[in-house]
Amino acid sequence: MFVFLGRLAPQKGVHLLLDCVGPLVRATAGRAHVLASPYARRCAAQMAQLRASVGARSFRCGGGGAFVSAAADFGVMPSLCEPSGLVGEEFLAAGTPLVCAATGGMRGRVSSSS
């Protein structure tokens, strides 16, 4: 399970993750799901388009970030700009591997081989 936790803002790169959802859901025959917190306008519009093309059953809403980050197979941070990366630190503290953009504070915390 890949997990993004954080606020929905353009610099967080959520739109990059959403670009992957449609192909991922289709490639897994609907076994991939999106767990989402309240929507920002830009992401809500993109999610509505995805929902229409891949089906509403592929979307879920939830909470409990600490439990989710510990249960995740991978944390995902596609941030375009990430000054410190507190959420990334929380994934790492939970022992969850982190896939992130090489930007800001996370650049020094992860490597391409870890």
From TrEMBL:
Which compartments is it annotated to reside in? Answer: Plastid, Amyloplast
* Tree of life domain: Eukaryota
**Plastid found in the keyword field:** yes
* Keyword field: Amyloplast, Plastid
Key word Transmembrane present:
no
Alphabetized Pfam families for the sequence: Glyco_trans_1_4
Kindly provide the name given to this protein in its UniProt entry: Glycosyl transferase family 1 domain-containing protein
